[in-house]
Amino acid sequence: MKRNYDGCALCNSTWGSVFAEVEGERMFFCCDLCLVQFRNLIERIRRETGWTRIDSLEIAGDRRGRTCQATSGEARAGFQFSFTPDGALLRFERA
Fold it and tell me: How far apart are the first and last CA of the chain?
């Protein structure tokens, strides 16, 4: 999956040392919370779109709220979202 970040797959932080497989790819996360949030985001995007795979994900924003543009083949969808302190999606809507 193509991502717009060089650091953590969710927040772009470069500290930390959490590596996990997501979507069949080994990805870097700064902390376990970002990993949980990223997995919840991927799961929700798949549920909302019906896509079997996500080719790219561009995320912007911070802990108060983020936006993302997801693509699968030629399909594209935008979302606004935020998380609870434990990593569950608090708000998720199409942008």
Answer: 21
Helix and strand numbers, DSSP H then E, in the chain: 1, 7
- Locate the DSSP E strands across the chain: 2-3, 18-22, 25-29, 56-62, 65-72, 75-83, 89-94
Structure tokens given for 76: 């594209």
Q: pTM of this prediction?
A: 0.93
Q: CA quadruple 24, 28, 32, 37: dihedral positive or negative?
A: negative
- Per-10-residue mean pLDDT for the chain, 95 residues long? 91 94 94 97 97 95 93 97 94 94
- Map residue 73 onto helix, strand or coil: coil
Q: What is the number of other CB atoms lying within 10 angstroms of the CB of residue 35? A: 22
Residues 73 and 52: their CA atoms lie apart, in Å, by 11
